[in-house]
Design brief:
Layout: E1 8-14, H1 21-34, E2 38-45, H2 51-60, E3 67-72, H3 78-86, E4 93-96, H4 107-116, E5 124-131, H5 135-152, E6 164-167, H6 168-172, H7 183-193, E7 197-204, H8 218-240
Parallel strand pairs: 1-2, 1-4, 2-3, 5-7
Antiparallel strand pairs: 4-6, 5-6
Helix pairs in contact: 5-8
Length: 241
């Protein structure tokens, strides 16, 4: 085992991603080999495919250290899976990214560099900014950013970009975190409205390696946008109170 103290923790929620897991774990190994003060928590978020078997086989045949699998018995939502992992992080700086490899886990290195070079590590919020995306996706992002500005009065750009990284003390201050895909909006909005310094950096957004994401079809995007608007209205009421 590595003896260096853990400073950074990365959570990666995995739901029915068994076909992506071998490549994902390989990329995680590259990340861990680059620095000794990092840990990775892969969350098996109540998967119904053969993810548990694949995890067991991969980890049994590798010497990867500073990586563990957090098992959630029943899927209770994207946000629940992430927070389940965040609660087990031991680093002072924590965050998450996705398992579909559209954004590379190695992007976390850029986020760590921002923290390493900051004089205000306890008050910065770091988030990727997706590039090389289809025009339709960019259009949706612009539209949702405008909607959030009108509803919440906050300028929130590319809400679902990854990775999302922040001090653990900020996470400990949060209450009533949503269990679904509203988690990205909730945490980003809280960071902006508590005066944290927002740092963005470009991340390449690639094609999904295998499987189908929750938000790839036009109908899925519209459904997600509708749910996000409903949650934003609830959040605005909460802010008003």
């Amino acid at each position: 085992m590595k003896n260096s103290p853990i400073k950074y923790s990365l959570v990666i929620p995995c739901y029915n991603e068994s076909r992506n897991l071998p490549v994902l774990v390989d990329r995680c190994k590259t990340l861990l080999d680059s620095r000794e003060d990092v840990e990775i928590l892969l969350v098996d978020n109540g998967s119904t495919d053969d993810s548990q078997k694949v995890f067991k086989e991969i980890l049994a045949n590798t010497d990867i250290t500073n990586m563990q699998v957090v098992h959630v018995k029943k899927n209770q939502g994207y946000g629940f899976g992430i927070t389940s992992g965040l609660k087990k992080c031991t680093g002072d700086v924590i965050g998450w990214t996705h398992a579909d490899l559209q954004t590379d886990p190695m992007d976390f290195v850029s986020a760590m560099d921002i923290f390493d070079n900051s004089k205000h590590q306890s008050n910065i919020f770091v988030k990727g900014d997706r590039i090389n995306r289809p025009f339709r996706d960019v259009l949706f992002t612009r539209g949702m950013s405008l909607v959030e500005w009108l509803l919440l009065g906050s300028k929130l750009w590319d809400i679902n970009a990854q990775p999302t990284v922040f001090p653990k003390s900020f996470f400990n201050s949060l209450n009533n975190m949503p269990h679904d895909f509203s988690l990205d909006l909730f945490v980003y909005h809280k960071a902006v409205n508590t005066g944290m310094k927002i740092e963005r950096f470009p991340v390449n957004f690639a094609e999904r390696l295998a499987g189908e994401g929750h938000n790839e079809k036009l109908s899925s995007k519209l459904k997600y946008s509708y749910k996000t608007i409903l949650y934003s209205l609830q959040l605005r009421k909460h802010i008003g109170r």
